[in-house]
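Example record for the data management plan.
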Amino acid sequence: MIEDGIILIDKPAGMSSFGVVARVRRQLSQHFGHKMKVGHTGTLDPFATGLMILVVGKECKNAQKYSKLDKTYEATIVLGKTSSTGDPEGEIVEVSDKKVVQAYIEKVLEQFTGEIAQTPPAFSAIKVDGQRAYKLARAGKKVEIPARNVTIYSLQLLSYEYPILKIRTNVSSGTYIRTLAQDIGDGLGIGAYCSELRRVTIDKYSVEDASQAFLIE
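Corresponding structural encoding:
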């Protein structure tokens, strides 16, 4: 165990990023016999899995350096339905039963490579007027988040068997894959939401080198 540095965590589904930090902090504090400082360098939604970089001790001051790195995700997208949160935890609404062909999907995916304007979801950790957007959204308040430019370096179709579309994408920091899934659904004209999401790399760091050992109680 380390007192200063980074820890690579493979976050399981169902756990919040803050829950991961709390559990690792507790484990390290018990091991070293004093309260440890632990922080994350970018959240993952509770339904998502994969790589998180945690900063420990003196390395906490460098958290922003890691948060700005490019990331790679693998996502499962359900076509023909939308979600109020863009993921399986929201209210799911059927939009269309139209079965689009793979060639058309590939053509639409091409529209989302390069620099694009993206509006972050209302259910996100972005702060609006000093409060987390998701807290405002859960309270039924209207949340307006301005669009911002993000970069999709690559967007690969891994498999397609209607209504399930699987993709792998390398993106700039600040890109929301839930929003990308929704935008792809809009581009296809049939709606979509992200049902599974896994972060596999953050710059040179890979989930293959990460562990869940610190999360075991």
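Summary line stored alongside the record: The two ends are 16 Å apart (CA to CA).
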